[in-house]
Design a protein that fits this description.
Length: about 325
């Protein structure tokens, strides 16, 4: 086994933090087609990330009642709003249970219909989607929810609090140095956040921060730390990723934020973020590294916002 393979093995021992390098360095036989499970998932609003799987032959009730299989807190949802049944033939049957505010699929009101993968559901004012998810994807979703609910988190967003910068980040950088792998960070600054608070209320502003945090957590790997750095500023760290790879991750998250259905939070609301990405240079202090990412985010804001800039291009 050559040096490259040894490095991949070392990464596995470091919190499994760099899956991509492992796959490149240690190619595996082609995997068989993964089994997928029908999953109803909330994609916007206060209940975002709530989900439930529906195995074949079973059914669920979506509603506000304590006994509902997928419980939603939104007041526009009836106690027993909708039934969804996974038929023995594989089809997904949705039945509205005479709800007060109705059920819609892909924008069309329905009382009874067959759902198809990626169909968009409106249960009252709650936005959901039928996704066919693999066990790996469901595992990632469960871990995101668990991370958001764990200790040492910012009480509003569920992201790590700023103490991680002084404690956990130092150890993470040291691990990357020992493994001789890159580490990059991204500085995220919410565009026009004061205007959102002024126009829509601070409550909506809080919901925006929570929504962005969830979209970000879904867009990074399980062991990529994300920190609420300031009021409307977030940083995330990508061990094992160079600046080019970090740029791709940041742009994917940028598109997820700008393309999100923010009307579910407040009618007419539009949200975007400006990103700055920097790869840590050999021997560079953590402060200098983070400052370069901050300056790159400023370039994004000055250049028109809703974009990603890399520190090496400044």
């Amino acid at each position: 086994m050559g040096p490259k393979d040894n490095k991949a093995d070392e990464l596995v021992k470091i919190d499994d933090m760099h899956e991509i390098t492992v796959r490149i360095s240690m190619p595996r036989p082609a995997e068989t087609q993964k089994k997928v499970i029908p999953t109803i998932r909330v994609v916007a609003g206060p209940d975002m990330l709530s989900y439930i799987t529906i195995p074949e032959g079973e059914e669920i009730i979506v509603g506000r009642d304590e006994t509902a299989d997928l419980k939603l807190i939104d007041g526009t949802v009836s106690k027993r709003h909708t039934r969804i049944r996974h038929e023995d033939n594989g089809s997904m049957l949705l039945i509205d249970l005479n709800s007060t505010n109705g059920t819609a699929v892909n924008g069309q009101p329905v009382t009874r219909t067959i759902l198809r993968p990626s169909d968009h559901l409106e249960i009252g004012a709650v936005s959901l989607r039928l996704d066919m998810m693999s066990s790996e994807e469901l595992g990632h979703l469960r871990r995101v929810i668990s991370r958001l609910e764990s200790a040492n988190r910012d009480t509003l967003t569920g992201l790590l609090d700023r103490s991680f910068i002084d404690e956990g980040l130092v150890k993470l950088v040291e691990k990357c140095e020992r493994a001789e792998v890159p580490i990059s960070c991204a500085f995220v600054d919410l565009d026009h956040f004061k205007s959102i608070n002024d126009q829509f209320s601070h409550k909506v502003g809080d919901e925006v921060l929570c929504g962005i945090s969830r979209l970000l957590m879904l867009g990074v790997r399980d062991n990529d730390p994300a920190v609420r750095y300031g009021g409307d500023e977030i940083m995330f760290f990508l061990p094992g990723s160079n600046e080019t790879r970090a740029l791709e991750v940041a742009d994917r998250i940028r598109r997820a934020v700008s393309g999100h259905d923010w009307d579910r939070t407040a009618t007419g609301l539009r949200v975007s973020c400006s990103f700055g990405v920097a790869e840590r240079e050999a021997g560079e202090s953590i402060k200098s590294w983070m400052d370069r990412a901050d300056k790159a985010a400023y370039i994004s804001k000055r250049g028109g916002r809703n974009q990603v800039s890399r520190a090496t291009s400044i």
